[in-house]
Amino acid sequence: MPVFLHASLDLPIYRAPDSRLSSSPSSSFSSSSLPTLGSSTSHGFSSGIEEPRLCRQVRRRGRAEPLSRCSSAARRAVGQGMAEAFNRHTKGNAHIVLVGRNEQAAQKVIAKMRAARGASSTGSGSYTFAPCDISLMANVRHSAADILAAHPRVNFLVVTAGVLGANSPTTADGIDRTAALHYYSRWQFFHEMLPGLRAARDAGEDAKAVSVYSAGDGGGMDTLANYNDLMCESFAERNPGIVFAHASPGAVRTNLLKASDSWLLHAIDVVLPLMRPITVSQDECGEYLWSGLYRAAASGGSGAVTGAFRIGSKGQELGMDRYYGSPEERRGVWSHTVKVTKTRDADP
Ligand SMILES: NC(=O)c1ccc[n+]([C@@H]2O[C@H](COP(=O)([O-])OP(=O)(O)OC[C@H]3O[C@@H](n4cnc5c(N)ncnc54)[C@H](OP(=O)(O)O)[C@@H]3O)[C@@H](O)[C@H]2O)c1
């Protein structure tokens, strides 16, 4: 599944220990509560910074993706691996919302999670599918509003939707589709779900948002990876007490190559099974990334910004390894994104 959220209303299963060194997810609550904080913190950022180069490159006019696309082929995705792992950890006692275009695939994952939740479940969790082509910002806003209406507190927000291909048409928002999926929609989801994350934080529960993309792969190779780092820092600065993480899944045997429009990537997909020694399954990836996310405490973080994390494919903290950015770029990318996504209520 491309995007999913874990809204744990009456059952906040996990509480991050106040130490980044603790090894495994805790299934019990800590009695110490996080400080109750205001709903947002303004740091008075300047909006007069020039639009970053990539942003100018990616804004072009074009068409949107179709809302639904069904496939009967077996589907594998990092998002599915993470959803199923979380379902195992919580033994079905959590409210899980899968967000995406493909209802048929989502319902299969939901059926699998229902079957796996086991006898120890109290049955008070739930599974929902929210239809959304997230390449369009208006869709993200509507979808987030619907989810928040049903789940006012959100403990974990996981965004994974992505594409890999030779062609990347422009969406109806005028944004390159790959950039829309790998960066702008993630920023928009983080922003729109802030009320739910803040409500969880203020209730003394875990409040964590993660963008699974390519932490540690930035620089000239992938500017969108830099943007994801800067995005997490900007949200963390404005929202103390909430964890914002950019994670790398590593090499995972998913549908990413098969779904591509590139014959070269299709060819690599054919030999993917031979690469088992250097790749992981979606389930292994899910476990690794959750281990990193559970350990991430809002009082810690990578580098200078408290609450912002960069998580590697084994769940390890990447710190500032292969980090490319600066406070000026962080402010510039924030202003640019507010403008491109036409977000009216963003913190300055
Ligand atoms: N797999 C890897 O080895 C690897 C390595 C490095 C980074 N990553 C990154 O990790 C993320 C997850 O990758 P993955 O391997 O899970 O990819 P995947 O198997 O192709 O899954 C991506 C999901 O995104 C969904 N999606 C695509 N366009 C969408 C849209 N417009 N609206 C809603 N959903 C959309 C697809 O759903 P439908 O097409 O069914 O709608 C698909 O389920 C991606 O950002 C990828 O770039 C992956």
Order of helices and strands: EHHEHEHEHHEHEHHEH
**Structural class assignment:** alpha/beta
Total helical elements? 10
Identify every distinct bound molecule in the structure, by name, code or SMILES.
Answer: NADP nicotinamide-adenine-dinucleotide phosphate
- Radius of gyration of CA atoms, rounded to a whole number: 19 Å
Write down the CATH topology.
Rossmann fold
Rough outline: globular
GO molecular function: oxidoreductase activity
Biased composition (Low complexity): 19-35
Pfam family, one: adh_short_C2
Protein name: Ketoreductase (KR) domain-containing protein
Give a topology summary.
Elements: E1 3-7, H1 53-58, H2 78-90, E2 95-100, H3 103-116, E3 126-131, H4 137-150, E4 156-159, H5 177-192, H6 194-202, E5 208-212, H7 223-238, E6 243-247, H8 263-270, H9 282-295, E7 308-311, H10 327-340
Parallel strand pairs: 2-3, 4-5, 5-6, 6-7
Antiparallel strand pairs: 1-2, 1-4
Pfam families: adh_short_C2 (PF13561)
Keywords: Oxidoreductase
Biased composition (Low complexity): 19-35
Q: What does the model show?
A:
Residues 16-35 are annotated as: Disordered. This is Ketoreductase (KR) domain-containing protein. The protein is of the alpha/beta class and 348 residues long. The chain has a single domain (3-11, 51-340), classed as Rossmann fold (3-Layer(aba) Sandwich). It has helices at 53-58, 78-90, 103-116, 137-150, 177-192, 194-202, 223-238, 263-270, 282-295, 327-340; strands spanning 3-7, 95-100, 126-131, 156-159, 208-212, 243-247, 308-311. Helix 5 packs parallel to helix 7 (223-238). The relative contact order is 0.18. Residues 6-73 have low confidence and may be disordered. It binds NADP nicotinamide-adenine-dinucleotide phosphate. The site of NADP nicotinamide-adenine-dinucleotide phosphate (NAP) has 30 residues, from helix 2 and helix 5.
